[in-house]
Amino acid sequence: MLLDILKEPMLLLLIAVSVIYLIVGNYSEALFMFGAIIAVSGISFYQDNRSKKALEALEKLNEPLSTVIRNGEIRQISTREIAVGDLCIVEEGQIINADGRIVHSNDFSVNEASLTGESYSVFKSADSEDREVYSGTLVVSGLAVFKVEQIGSDTKLGKIGQSIYDIKEESSPLHIQITKFVKRMAAIGITVFLIVWGYSFWQSGNLLESLLVGLTLAMSILPEEIPVAFTTFMALGAWKLMKEGIIIKRSSVIETLGSTTVICTDKTGTITENTMQLPMLLDFKTNRVFEASQFHSPDLAELIQYAMWSSEPVPFDPMEKTIHQVYEQTQSKDQRKDFHMIHEYPLEGKPPMMTHIFEDASGNRIIAAKGAPEAFLEISHLSESEKEQLRQQIKDFGKQGYRVLGVGKGHFEGTSFPEKQQDFFFEFLGMTVFYDPPKKGIQKVFQQIYDAGIKVKVITGDNADTTKAIAQQAGIIDETIPVNGADIVQLSTDEIIALTRKTTLFTRMFPQAKLATVNALKQDGEVVAMLGDGVNDAPALKSAHIGVAMGNKGTEIAKAAALMVITNDDLGKLITAIAAGRRIYANIKKAIQYVISIHIPIILTVSLPVLLGWIYPHILTPVHVIFLELIMGPTCSIVYENEPMEKNTMLQKPRKMTETFLNFNELGISIIQGLIITVGVLWMYQYAVQEGQDEKTTRAMVFTTMIVSNVFLCLVNRSFVYSLFESMKNKNKLFPMIIGVTLVLLFAILYIPAFADFFQLSSLSFQELGFSILVAGVSVLWFEIYKWIKSGRIRKRMVSSV
Questions:
Q1: 414 Ramachandran zone, left/alpha/beta (phi>0; psi -120 to 50)
Q2: pLDDT digits (tens, 9 = 90+) for 507-521
Q3: How far is residue 376's CA from residue 408's CA, in Å, rounded to a whole number?
């Protein structure tokens, strides 16, 4: 890190200036320059180390965890701590982190595309011919316990040399723009340096003195604070969000957050609590709806039993956990230990369903299925009137926000089970009626999203009626008919784009449909944040500009695909992240505008007296320039980074991603600010000369005006909208600290003889000091009048629009 810092252009310039001072015998200046080298590299080292530590902390949080059985206990450990011989537990949605052999499984299938290139699922169990599982593959369904045989580079994936975690980070638009700007400024600096060096040598004939003038100018032009500020802002922004429970995997995502124009959110576990309460059961035989207090009724025994048998023996889905709990609470005899699973069909089909087949020691068989009620309407032998009645009941439940699953009882003799579960003969038993209520305070969250000018799209696998009811309860604005996933995949890209513009609710969505919707929104120029927690959300999470996974109830594949993880599943944290993105982007702009504005008077005060042949051509020497640089660096990258968000920031529309970090007007304002400060500083120069002041007093008045102008500019540029008095209400303890240190150092330089002699200036009288402060104030504070006029125009526009 230190070697990289020593390669920075500013450090190289300082070293060159120090060497020249040594050659010409100015040992005190050389010593100061070496001190400046230590100070500049120390500040850079501190900032780089702070950024590095913040990113390391984020990387540690992003490190995947694995579940193992050790000493009879289930533990979660860091993946790098897995050892050969461990018993590892993997569930649906997780990535397998070692090679091993299955010792137990339920409804277990994996996607081995990372190794084979084939995207279909492979079913495996302890009894199947292929019992091996491999690192880097994805669990599509079920649960398995496997014994670890190979880890790290010894795994099949490790030998191939692939890693699903090594994703090359692309430069963000803002980073590219800033890099181009700095390179242009560096090119201008080199050109001007050569011109001034040549011109000064032509006039004086002194090579080293001319070189010193040129290097001083190069130091004043080089905007080395800008890339440092960018890195610091992004790393510290990610670190601060981490403390809020928001894990950012790539710090450059922060700038994208502030540009978010549409949020695509899953329903279950994101809008809702994902608790899956079971308030009702519908028994088909009696055509009755039973409430929770009536679940002990003998009429429900068969429905509850088959709902349980159709669930995983070791449940991990919230609905299946609830079903098992209801079974335990209502059945007099627990038969789960008496039966073992002999065959299973995973959740599949459109509409989806799943089937489990169990047998006991006596050969008694249970065939249980559950899934979307529409699936049973297609395969059960019901009359048309019965089907119509059930459709109406499903619709009524959906309108109240309930999630409904059908339950069926199968019949089959023999062991040559059908290839498809839909080929069984099923007796329809009834429906489980779940309720997953919206999270507390979710209405306020969505109101904040709308206030920020961001659109909302709900993309869920649930049916239209349930989704519409939950959306209404959550405060989502929806005035259009929901669209079904099966319809989306039939459309062209242009048709999907047209659909996304007017549709809010997308229901019965499967992975390809979710992905197509997100891609259509992106092609339509939207900046998309996609929220999800399931396996079927992963492709859309990966494709979105900002994939946001739920950290608590989210699957590992969702977390791996996302760029941001909300640790406590609180959707409100997304608002916090978007606000942080807007704050950081605005503060970067303020910092850069400050750097541009203050560099202009330094550049022109160094160059114009030389080029115009004024009486004191070297009014600012490298010593003065590096002192200003030492003040500007921390101000730009540390103080402005700590600036709080301005009021009403979250009531504005998102900025466009295509915008440059400084548009023509913003750059123009900064240049004008810099030029007016230059006028003030050079006017002070001429005033002192006209008053007959010597070089030291003139330098003192010019230097004081420059330093005080810098202090005023720091304060004024805290906001380009609100007045200085208004922005002073925003608490930032670093501002008074840096301003206090700057003024103490200025007075030390002016009034401590040793310092004054070193900086080659003289002490100022009270009148001269006051006049320098007045000129500095006029040179900067005029901008407050501009802000007042601008805000008045904005108010007039708002009144006229109303």
A1: left
A2: 988 888 899 999 999
A3: 7
